[in-house]
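Researcher: Batch entry, complex prediction.
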Amino acid sequence: MTVKANGAPFIPGLDLEKEATRWNQVFKIMTGPKPDIISTPRQSIWKKNKSTLWYHPAKDKKYAIPVFMVYSLLNKSYILDVGPGSSVVGGLTEQGYDVYLFDWGSPGLEDSDLTLDRYILDYLEAAIKRAIRHSGQEGISLLGYCLGGTISAILASITDLPIKNLILAAVPIDFSIGIVPDKWLEGLQSGEVDFNRFSDAYGTLPSEFMYLMFRMLSPVYSSPMINLVTRSHDQEYVEKWRRMDKWTKDTASFAGAAFKQMFHDLYKENKLLKGELVIGGRQVNLSKIQCPLFVFSCSRDTLVLEQQSLPVLDMVGSSDKTYEVFDGGHVSLALTGKFAQFADQWLCTRSQS
Amino acid sequence: MTDEKHYDPFEGYKRLAGIWEKQMNGLLYMMTDNRETVRLMKTGLDAHSRYMELLRKNQELMASFLNIPTKKDVANAAKLSIQTEEKIDLLEEQIWNIQDSLGRLNQENVEMLREVVSIIQQMKTEFQQAASQMAETEKVKKELQELKAGLVDIKIVQVHLQELRKEIDSLKGIKTDLKNLKNNKELSQIQSDLRELKEETAQLSHIRLELGTLKESINGEQEQGIKMDEELVLAAASPSKG
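Model: Structure tokens for the complex:
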């Protein structure tokens, strides 16, 4: 059914059916519950405190060396397994990789004293050890995304575990380059703005605060809603949008001690870049990374800039190192599942034992 | 413009909103990029932190008066279970280590046993070989003894042979002696034979002479007979000419 205005030759008709579908969908999304996230077939092989080590077996195993995925401490784990068709984990299992995904979990008040040292050594290193034991292989490919990439790089430089390949996606290494206004950065680096007292007062920073922090980076945030209204007649897009919307608003809480340490050692002192970071009494020297390395950034990434990732290439000791820039944004890299394609292109030749 | 193309008012709105959002964020970015905002942020953060500290302190105080647990108490209880879990993890890892070392030990033992079995088998075959060699040696020994006995016999035979040889030698002497004796007897006989032969030869030459005379007489008689035959043949042939 089409209604034409009086000035038909100049103003095209309005498709009422399409409009009805559009607004019906928008109403349903606004009033309905958040969608359920259907994960790729998995089994839990280890739990510690709130964290879980998930094992996603390959659909048709082609590669001996499994992939261990680490995401940011700031997010929820389903950023890498957001649903059929756009899951990074699902993409890799379809390509023939056994995938281990380490879910950090959301810390509670009892975890307020969890430091980065403990996260890296007591949780991540222990999880990788268990994944290797579970897989029965002699090594593993470590894949870190965003802050998970920073943590992966730190671990790879201090661990004795057999890490065969290292992939760092949209990884911040140089924290002197900021996405916040320059004066803020000066204030943060000079110590004028300090989160120590705030972290101590809260113990564990609530997820609402973390969400607010992200929102402060782009206070006007209407584009997702406009995108939904514009394309809400497209069912497939609506499903993806709902999953993305759920993930965006579902941030994790953050252990106060780890937040203080991260803020002080990385954002304020930039110790990782300077080679002064100490984790578990071990000096973090990225030149100790000798395994093949693949670093990639996204051309439209506004959260982690390309310049923040680039220094790692000069710092590592690997002879086999690759750097690429892919078209996309920071979050869309994971939510569209393109991440799996990029990782597979590089990993496929390096994943046979 | 055709009738099939419909108007989507949100396409334009989307574009405008995108530009607006970007510009607004840029504006806010620039507006807050100053020392005042930083100071305000610091003040706000400190004030909020102080307020939260005070609130938590009062909460704890009130809860202690009321003798009810706070979230902190629950967290402390939860920490105990986390510690227990960590200890269990450590124990599990130690069990793994023990399992691994036991596994390695077992493997080493299995390998050692395998080696022992192979050595025993090797020894067994070597023993069998040695036993057969021993049997052969026994056999050889027996044969040697037999040979030894044979050698003794041979020596006896040799002695006998030497004796025989001596006897043969003595016999040979006897034989020559006998031969010599024999030769003497023959000579005398030959001489007598020769005498007899001489006598016989003389008789034969006498007979020969007689035979010669006889032959001559026979030859003369034969020639006369032939002449008579020729005359008879000629006589028979002449009447027919006439």
